[in-house]
Amino acid sequence: MRRHRTPWFTYPLAVFFAAFFLIPVIYAVMSAFKPVAELRLIVPTFFPRSLTLDNFRSAWNAVPHFPTVLFNTFLVAVSSTALAVTINTMSGYALAKFRFKGDTLILMIILATIMLPLEVIMVPIFRVLRFFGMYNSLWALIIPPAATPAGIFLMRQFLLTIPNDLIESARIDGASEWKIFYKIIVPNAKPAIATIAIFSFMWRWNDYIWPLIAISSPRKYTLQLAIATFQGQYQTDWSSLLATSAISMIPMLIIFLIFQRQFVQGTVETGMKG
Amino acid sequence: MTDSPPVKQRRRDSYKYYILKQKIVPYMFLLPNLLIFGLFIITPAIIGIYFSFTLFRGLGDTPVFNGLDNYRTLFGDQGFRDAMRNTIFLVAATLPIVFFSSLMLALLLAQPLRAKAFWRATYYWPVMISFIVVGLIWQWILRDSRGLLNGLVVTLGFERLQTLLNPRFAWWSVVFVFTWSRAGYYMIMFLAALLSVPVSLYEAAEIDGANRLQRFLYVTYPVLKPARTMVFILAAMEIFKIYPLVVSFTAGGPFRATVFTVQYIYETAFQYRQVGLASAMSVIMILFVMVFSGVNMYLAKRGGEV
Amino acid sequence: MKKFLVLSLTLFTAFVVAACGTSDRPDFQMMWFSDGTEGQVMRELLERYRDETGVYIELFEIGWDVYETRLGTMIDGGEAPALVRTTEGVMNNFKDLLIELDDVFDTTAYTNIFYSANNLPLGLPMDVTANGLFVNTDILDRCGVEYPVRGDEDIWTWDEFTTEMDKLRDCDDVSVPGVFDFQGHRFMAMIYQQGVKIWNEPFTDSNLTSPEAVQALTILHDFYQNGMISKEVFVSGGAAAEMFQTGTVGFHMSGNWRVSGYGDNDFEWAVIPMPTGPEGHRATLLGGKAMSAVQGSGNEQAAKDFIAWLAEPANHDEFNNFVPFLSARIGAEIDFGEFQEAYSMFQDEINATDPAFVSDWLTQTQIPGMYPMINLMTDRAAEGVMTPLEILEALEASLIAAME
Fold first, then answer.
1. pLDDT in tens, B63-106
2. What is the mean pLDDT of chain B?
3. Does residue C112 have a pLDDT over 90?
4. Rounded to the nearest 10 degrees, what angle do helices B116-128 and B78-109 cross at?
């Protein structure tokens, strides 16, 4: 299947980058297991001298309804990702494969919203959410953020590489537009769909601003909202924050490992033959 | 959407109908997204633009229309100009580094490696860590006293380095830390595009006797064009709105050397309580970035194929 | 992919079921932020309140960074929380939106009350904060530094302080003689210690450029420039306390909110008198937190009822005893345990502060955006590019401009 050997420097390079990315992460994760006194040393330790679960315990105690909070975060991330994948793929397709009035303008506006500092317009967003009955509801964390600009842009740019003949020939065969979408576009866009799924899960999992605007009941908190409460006027509880962050990486890693399998060489070609 | 193949001419006006329908189709595909955008983002944004023409302190205060006052104030605001300039330099310095390092990582992982999932997950890992924690980790590594780097330097018997307290060192550290935390993110975008390059293209190139570099230059690089445009624009925007990372990494210091536009806007809005003025700053910033990405899109389009 | 869809559908169903199943609805809410464990203490108090009265008040916490923004958004959006934990800064910013607590509690029984324009309290004072000087006595004793302790008649001036602390520079195992919290209002007490008020005529005529104020900032400026205190707080807000906790720093200029956090330090430490100016003026800056009720929550009376309950000595003391805090209730018997001496020192600093300075500072806190302005001032002193006089002139101009 493979066409040529890898160059000799491939593995050394791969190992080098792995170290570059992993060492700080390992340092952070190990720090979450260090006793508070060890975190205070003037010359820090890399490997913990002694291990403790105290930081996890204090985080668990400081956040009311910790399991519910975890469940909420998971629920929001999964639901919003399912929605985002669907509507972003649809929009990306429209923007990549159709010429219509206002297409560039729509894309530019969508892109511009990436730059919008939501904190500055919290007040109007709050009113809109309340108007639609989404205040203090998890729906506010699922629906509005699902229309991710970066997701749409990603899908559009990816679909630009899919040959137009594929769509045209289907059209001549008399396929409906919807059928073209899910029989041709969706199968060919698998790597992009997987990418959006990975990103969207991560965005929602780490989302802070939407929960901050919309949620006020502790039973509906998400993880990031809970983490932010470690920060007080005079002091921040870094050890709890570190421990919670270490926990919060696990689901994102699992989702990544599931979806990265969709990156398979030569998808477009199989699409063409089939 | 109903089936209406034009070739069969089922209705008298079916061709016209088809053309009309084809005009509506893209809007139908866009509808769910645009609906959500329109309601939850664009509407508040328009209200936000209105704020930029008002004297507004936030916190239950009523906005009072004051015309272009905020814009006038803003152009005379040395702090805002400094923050904008600092940010533009940051984009100029960071964008090429992030762009090429993520492209290189993607090319590396597109090789037929063993344990692909492991390498991918490893490079992607920093992306999963929230900016606040990324900033914290690197502060623990780079800070002057108690930092891991200086700990190592002292253990090896050298003089302590002046690290984050040196404004220049702190500024370049932001470039470095941003790259560390985001290279994996843009790598995934490149990888998704890279792995959809039809194998037949390579095979054809190989038959033509192209070497590795030629294959990259004449096959891979052109095919990656849409992905390149995207990474370029998204990364530029992300660097432009850098803030949460800086807050926990250098807090904008030392001596405001790492204060960038968004931090300045937040300070104006929430510490100095000038929401109207901050809205005007946001408008200027968004216009600036829109022009930047508009020019890029235009250049990409003119280059053909997109 | 299919599995993912099935999974999300299942979760969706679970979600809908769970959403219908919530029966335990709170009567109203209290908004809160925490520096330590006090949120848990308040939650316990609220549970007891529910047992006694049947009223279910739900506490929700928001990080301090976005606390006021969030409160403003809720009030503006018509979802005002009935009760809110406030600081004097929050009360000032929201003074038109909080309920005036007329006849809710006995104002003569409390200190540090923040009043509205109608001279009615805007919150029930819960605890009092004050600036103070922490020292690592292990280091000071080892390096031969002589320092006054609580109760001494003759304490030190800033000159004497500087002379003594200079000894730490050449002492072994000292990474830096001292640290100051970065927040500028730790510094503002130094102006009072020089014997001047900030405002002669509020927001028009200040003493910020007087020789006394310049002298105060010069002390700080020189400390930063000659390495007496670390600049690291300017890249990390929490650095001062973290550095002191390494056990290699002689002194930390901070406040009483640090005391319980220093409980597990593995060295001997104490709170000692802050230095005075040449005239012997002592001064600390007062602040504190309060419990306020918000207008338009729909539960105004119930919120007032709770505050009245909280003002009962037993309940008020229970809160402050647990943390522990310096109580705002006059005559409160708080058991500070091992921290008794430290808290008494703060109480002494408060008692030794001229009431004229206290009211001058309260005036000062009414300037919107005052804190970032004075923070910028200490930032500039540490940077060392401008002279103290130039820095103070800039500060005076921006404070006056903010009130226009």
1. 899 989 999 999 889 999 999 999 999 999 999 999 999 999 99
2. 87
3. no
4. 170
And the tokens for B235? Answer: 């990364």
Helices (H) and strands (E) in chain A, counts: 16, 0
Residue C34 lies in a domain: yes
Interface probe for C, chosen from A38, A40, A119, A182 (most Cβ of C below 10 Å), is: A40
Task: Please give the Cα distance from C206 to C216 (Å, whole number).
Answer: 15
Cβ distance of B40 and A103 shorter than 8 Å:
no
C22 has pLDDT over 60: no
Does any domain span residue C10? no
DSSP state of C273: P
Return the number of CB contacts < 8 Å for A and C.
Answer: 119
Q: Are A176 and A246 in contact (CB under 8 A)?
A: no
Q: Which two tokens stand for residue B270?
A: 């929430």
Give partners of C (≥3 CB pairs < 8 A): A, B
- Which chain A residue shows the shortest CA-CA distance from C260? A235
Select from A95, A178, A245 the Cβ nearest to the Cβ of B133.
A245
Closest residue in C to A40 (Cα) is C246
Chain A, window 120-179: residues with a beta carbon less than 8 angstroms from a chain B beta carbon: 120-121, 123-125, 127-129, 132, 143-144, 146-147, 150, 152-154, 156-158, 160-161, 172-179
Residue C199 near residue C282, CB atoms below 8 Å: no
- Residues in chain B closer than 8 A to A44 (CB atoms): 140, 146-148, 151
Q: Are residues C173 and C214 in the same domain?
A: yes
Q: In chain C, what residues touch A40 (CB-CB under 8 Å)?
A: 242, 245-247
What chain B holds in terms of domains, given with CATH numbers, is: 79-302 (1.10.3720.10)
Same domain, yes or no: C257 and C158 = yes
* Domain hosting residue C216, numbered range: 130-286+344-402
pLDDT of residue C224: 94
pLDDT classification of A178: cutoffs 50, 70, 90: confident
Neighbours of C296 (CB within 10 A): 14
Interchain contact C394–B (C-beta under 8 A)? no
The 3-state DSSP class for residue A215 equals coil
**Residue A9 C-alpha, separation from nearest chain B C-alpha, in angstroms:** 10
Q: Nearest Cβ partner of A40 from C19, C69, C245?
A: C245
Query: How many whole angstroms separate alpha carbon B259 and alpha carbon C234?
Result: 12
Is it the case that residue B7 has pLDDT exceeding 60? no
The C-alpha atoms of residue A94 and residue B30 are separated, in whole angstroms, by 6
CATH number where A244 lies: 1.10.3720.10
Q: Are residues A41 and A73 in the same domain?
A: no
C114, C103: one domain:
yes
Q: Do A268 and B198 touch (CB under 8 A)?
A: yes
Q: What is the CA radius of gyration of chain B?
A: 25
Q: Which residues of C touch A198 (CB under 8 A)?
A: none
B233 and A107 Cβ atoms separated by less than 8 Å: no
> Could you give the CA distance from residue A91 to residue B29 in angstroms, rounded to a whole number?
6
Q: Do residues A38 and A164 both lie within one domain? A: no
Under the banding of pLDDT at 50, 70 and 90, the label for residue B231 is very high
Q: How far apart (Å, rounded) are the C-alpha atoms in residues C299 and C295?
A: 9
